[in-house]
């Protein structure tokens, strides 16, 4: 089945501390932050156009699952950087270098998952940026590009 829909079903029945968000993301419109698409769940968190705003302080699991599509083989490596931001400051980042192999097909796909456990306060804003949003695969697997947060505990 669809991985995104499977995760959504699990999260809807997950015993969270009454705060969770699971939103599909797409290419940014006017900034480097990925846009949130109104699909998924948003419970006790404000889901804005580019960020999730925390309503209850606590320890949160923040995760981002993104699919990339490289339409052409390239002789030079491409560095993909995913940044999880809290209040517009980098809280966690992942760097992946994609290199075309000698057996490179015309198209190549790559999936990256980023997990982060962080203490968040009321009104903290969570968002994600990409240095090359043009490689985000919004055609083949648009529903599997997600940003989510789960409130794990009240205290650190």
From TrEMBL:
Pfam families: TNF (PF00229). GO terms for biological process: CD8-positive, alpha-beta T cell differentiation; immune response. One of its GO terms (molecular function) is tumor necrosis factor receptor binding. Residues 47-151 form the THD domain. SUPFAM superfamilies: TNF-like (SSF49842). One of its GO terms (cellular component) is membrane. PANTHER family: TUMOR NECROSIS FACTOR LIGAND SUPERFAMILY MEMBER 8. Belongs to the tumor necrosis factor family. This is TNFL8 factor. It comes from Himantopus himantopus (Black-winged stilt).
